[in-house]
């Protein structure tokens, strides 16, 4: 049986590398690819792949959300294999909650990625049993999972995001945190990219909502 695979990664060179690796196997075919969450959501339901390899961090969102939404929109849903450059407990938590079948770092060897595709296509799981037990334990305790987008921010970016929510300008933030205004601007650009926002006002609204949620 041929395994059909869809690739989602915002770096074209990464997509080409993975596609070349998988297409070299007799039993795997890459049926489509995308560089953004929006493109993936438009293409996956029509292509109905057996496996979707999803980058965790994207310019317009996150792979975890794509996993959750695609599994709700497609019947039968594809097995979702999350691929990331970072080891992130909260992102792993989000992947498990979204119904992902596997979670791998991009440093994975090519032969292991091919094996992972075959494993999840056959209904297997590549999620660490210890991590899964931690998730179930948190659910039993009724704990709300941290938004993986917020968890991806560095402590300094989280502080700057909070000050943006307070209505501060870059110059004011710099004075508050003893940083150069250009440095603050770089931090703001980075946190907007990680959160999947194009505008500062979107980040301010998100930060205010996050603050309310965590204060409950």
Automatic annotation (TrEMBL):
Residues forming the HTH luxR-type domain are 146-211
Q: Does the keyword DNA-binding apply?
A: yes
Origin superkingdom? Bacteria
Keyword annotations from UniProtKB, A to Z = DNA-binding, Phosphoprotein, Transcription, Transcription regulation
Domain Response regulatory, first and last residues per copy: 4-121
The stretch of residues making up the signal peptide is none
Q: Which InterPro entries match?
A: CheY-like_superfamily (IPR011006), NreC/VraR/RcsB-like_REC (IPR058245), Sig_transdc_resp-reg_C-effctor (IPR016032), Sig_transdc_resp-reg_receiver (IPR001789), Tscrpt_reg_LuxR_C (IPR000792), WalR-like (IPR039420)
Which BP terms in the Gene Ontology apply to this protein? phosphorelay signal transduction system; regulation of DNA-templated transcription
Mind telling me which CDD domains this protein's record contains?
Answer: LuxR_C_like, REC_NarL-like
SUPFAM superfamilies, per database record:
C-terminal effector domain of the bipartite response regulators, CheY-like
> At what positions is 4-aspartylphosphate found?
55
MF-aspect GO terms: DNA binding
Per the record, a Pfam family? GerE
The record's section on PANTHER family has: TRANSCRIPTIONAL REGULATORY PROTEIN NARL-RELATED, TWO-COMPONENT RESPONSE REGULATOR
What is this protein's name? Response regulator transcription factor
Q: Which organism is it from?
A: Pseudonocardia broussonetiae
